[in-house]
């Protein structure tokens, strides 16, 4: 079964130059059957409307939020703006490789309308050069070893995700009706995508993953996840998520996944790696939070 037009709904709030790269990467797709909607979350330093209009492409439209909605509410608006069966929500600093639409359409067809699909990802830095930061080397270690399109679900997939979230949210293409059913929670900011995946998997959903790179994910030190890791606050959120996940996974009998959530190995190791820096900067409160996350049950 061939997928129809792919909706690409791109929230915009950030660096205009990187945003332009992201939009131009959509225009460079070798499969023209896509629709791009840019959602301007009231970025105060630049109005993208004139530049977007100047592209002169009827497949591209711009929507401006009535006010700054923030991450989760903007993602919900992206869902509302989707018209087709599948949508991707890439970051405005990421880049799609020219084969992205082709690859996700292939994965959708191979998987028989799975709840979501993800091609492999190339990580780039602030300057657009390929990079291999520690976080992404860890993702590569916990990612299931696959060759070709591979359907994943249930206890097996949940276990790998509880060991470490190896997926890249901006590269995922979702079935729109699934996102309308589950939505994005405002309870979490950093692990919001992982919480959404858990909801989908616990309802019997499937991911089809690929080993073929089709997306460039930009990793830079100014990201929200990097900042909240250094000051320790992200781990308060992570600990809350994993503790809740243990109970939910046990309730459905996914014992391996529940054990992985209880151990949360990569999350603990990530916190442990931040402690020397926190102490060196004299951030004792952050160091305390990090130590608590490493050793807490």
Structure description:
This protein has 13 helices and 9 strands. It has 297 residues and is an alpha/beta fold. It has 2 domains: 6-220, Spore Coat Polysaccharide Biosynthesis Protein SpsA, Chain A (Alpha-Beta Complex); 225-295. Strands 1, 2, 3, 4, 5, 6, 7, 8 and 9 form a 9-stranded mixed sheet that branches. The termini are far apart.
Summarize the structure in short.
With 297 residues, this protein is an alpha/beta fold.
Give the helix/strand layout.
Blueprint: E1 6-12, H1 16-27, E2 34-40, H2 49-54, E3 60-64, H3 70-81, E4 86-88, E5 95-96, H4 100-111, E6 116-124, H5 134-142, E7 150-153, H6 154-163, E8 173-175, H7 176-182, H8 192-202, E9 206-218, H9 224-231, H10 233-251, H11 255-263, H12 265-280, H13 284-295
Parallel strand pairs: 1-2, 1-4, 2-3, 6-9
Antiparallel strand pairs: 4-8, 5-9, 6-8, 7-9
Descriptive tags:
297 residues; alpha/beta; Spore Coat Polysaccharide Biosynthesis Protein SpsA, Chain A; nine-stranded mixed sheet; 9 strands
Please state the overall shape, judged from the principal axes of the Cα atoms: globular
What would the CATH topology of the largest domain be? Spore Coat Polysaccharide Biosynthesis Protein SpsA, Chain A
Largest sheet: 9 strands, mixed
CATH superfamily membership of the largest domain: Spore Coat Polysaccharide Biosynthesis Protein SpsA, Chain A
Q: Please count the helical segments.
A: 13
Tell me the distance between the termini. Answer: 46 Å
CATH top level of the largest domain is: Alpha Beta
Radius of gyration from CA coordinates:
19 Å
Mean pLDDT: 92
Pattern of helices and strands: EHEHEHEEHEHEHEHHEHHHHH
Helix content: 40-55%
């Amino acid at each position: 079964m061939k997928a129809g037009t792919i909706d690409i709904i791109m929230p915009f709030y950030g660096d205009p130059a990187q945003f332009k790269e992201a939009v131009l990467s959509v225009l460079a797709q070798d499969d023209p059957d896509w629709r791009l909607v840019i959602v301007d979350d009231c970025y105060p330093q630049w109005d993208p409307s004139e530049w977007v209009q100047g592209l002169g492409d009827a497949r591209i439209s711009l929507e401006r939020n009535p006010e700054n909605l923030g991450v989760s509410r903007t993602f919900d608006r992206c869902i509302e703006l989707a018209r087709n069966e599948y949508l991707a929500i890439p970051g405005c600093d990421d880049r799609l490789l020219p084969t992205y639409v082709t690859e996700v359409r292939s994965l959708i067809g191979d998987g028989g309308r799975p709840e979501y699909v993800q091609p492999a990802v190339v990580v780039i830095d602030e300057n657009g050069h390929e990079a291999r930061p520690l976080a992404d080397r860890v993702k590569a270690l916990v990612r299931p070893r696959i060759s070709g399109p591979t359907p994943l679900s249930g206890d097996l997939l949940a276990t790998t995700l509880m060991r470490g979230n190896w997926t890249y949210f901006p590269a995922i293409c979702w079935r729109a009706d699934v996102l309308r059913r589950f939505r994005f929670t405002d309870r979490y900011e950093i692990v919001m995508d992982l919480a959404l995946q858990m909801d989908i998997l616990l309802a019997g959903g499937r991911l089809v993953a690929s080993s073929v790179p089709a997306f460039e994910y930009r990793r830079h030190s100014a990201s929200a996840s990097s900042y909240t890791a250094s000051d320790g606050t992200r781990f308060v959120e992570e600990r809350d998520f994993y503790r809740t996940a243990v109970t939910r996974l046990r309730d459905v009998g996914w014992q391996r996944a529940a054990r992985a959530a209880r151990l949360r190995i990569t999350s603990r190791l990530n916190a442990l790696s931040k402690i020397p820096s926190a102490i060196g900067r004299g951030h004792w409160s952050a160091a305390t939070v990090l130590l608590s996350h490493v050793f807490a049950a």
